[in-house]
Structures are given as structure tokens and as C-alpha cells.
Amino acid sequence: MQKISTLFMRDPQDRRRLTREVHRRCQWVIDGEGVAKRKYDGKCVILDEFGNWWARLEVRPGEEPPPGFCTIAEDRGIRVGAEPLATSPWAKYFDEAIELYRPPGSQRPLPGTYELYGPEINGNPEDVSVHSLVYHSDAPLLDNSVRSYDSLREYLSDLPYEGIVWFHDDGRKAKIKRRDVMDAP
């Protein structure tokens, strides 16, 4: 689980905004590779190949990581990793969501990344009444032709959810959030 790169570079003067410059790791999206899927606004959780559930977590400089935290990458001094889900603040919401989760065509969840969302997560931007879980690979497909800055800005203005994640066959991912482009020049 790596942190997903944003399609366009962030403005160094205001990191909440994007520039029109394509991120070097995301040129493949502009080149028409990969498929676009819905980005959910919740908490990323991971099921590893041993059946253990983890909650994605960023630990900022000066912060103490929780017990069991595993660092996966570091970005500008921020450690990106995961903590055991069972001891995380998200455990009770996950327990509710996993009870309701029915994997398509499978008897149990597959290893990989999921989005945990619901009434007590991020202010409930998904506007749901129960905590839910979606396997990122099962997210709905979106219009795959929208890839330029201007067309994405227009497309995202009409979407009622967080944004888009592109999935490449080789495992690479790129994202763009609606809020990153809505107030941009």
C-alpha cells in the first residue's frame, strides 16, 4: 500500500491547490492508460495476505505512532503506514461494516485495499446511514476519456463524490479530488 500520487502537482505556495503540471509518476493517465473509478471519501483499510486487517495512517514529524504501526513509505517527513485495525479508533465502525459486507462472487473479502465509510467517518460526506466497506477494485467505473486538467475540472464539478482514482494494469494508481480543482484558477 503506497500513497497514491495526485495526477497534477500541488502548488508549493498553497498545497491545497493543484497546478496544471502533470505529476511525473502520473503521465500514464494523461497518455490514456488505466481505468477511472469512483473515489470514496472514508478511511482506507487493508486486508493483508495473512488475513490481518490494518488501518492506513500517516504519522507526522513529532507524533508518536500507535503500537503495532508499520511504516510503508515516507513523504516529506510524514510516515505513511498502517496500524492494526482492531486497536485503531476505526475498529467499532469496521465491525459494523464487515457484518454487512458481501463480496461480489466470493465467500470472504479478498486481500487488498478497501474504503471504510459511514456516519462517523470524515463527517459522512458519502451521506449513508450505516458504516460500509467497498473493495477499491470493485468501485464503479467512470468516464475514462476525461483526462485533461480542464475537462477533469468540469467533470468533477458535476460529481457528487470525492473524486477519481485511475488503476493501471501493472498496479500503479493516480488520483484527483474534486476539492483540489474546484477553487483553482
> What is the radius of gyration?
17 Å
The helix/strand class is: alpha+beta
Helix proportion of residues, in percent? Answer: 10-25%
Total count of helical runs of at least 4 residues: 4
End-to-end Cα distance, whole Å, is 32 Å
Residue-averaged pLDDT: 92
- Could you describe the largest sheet, including whether it forms a barrel? 6 strands, antiparallel
In terms of DSSP E residues, the strand content is: 35-45%
- How many β-strand runs? 12
* Strand arrangement in the largest pleated sheet: 7-8-6-5-9-10
- Domain count, please report it: 2
Per the principal axes of the C-alpha atoms, what is the gross shape?
Answer: globular
Q: SSE order in H/E notation?
A: EEEHEEEEEHEEHEEH
> Low-confidence runs (pLDDT<50, min 5 residues)?
none
Short note summarizing the structure:
The protein has 185 residues and is α+β, with helices and mostly antiparallel strands.
What does the secondary structure layout of this molecule look like, with pairings?
Elements: E1 5-6, E2 8-11, E3 14-22, H1 27-30, E4 35-39, E5 43-47, E6 53-59, E7 70-75, E8 78-84, H2 91-100, E9 112-117, E10 132-135, H3 149-157, E11 163-167, E12 173-177, H4 178-182
Parallel strand pairs: 1-12
Antiparallel strand pairs: 2-3, 4-11, 5-6, 5-9, 6-8, 7-8, 9-10, 11-12
Features:
alpha+beta, 185 residues, 2 domains, globular
Description:
This protein is globular. The protein folds into two domains: 1-39 and 147-185, no CATH class; 41-138, no CATH class. The two termini are 32 Å apart. The protein is α+β, with helices and mostly antiparallel strands and 185 residues long. It is 15% helix and 35% strand.
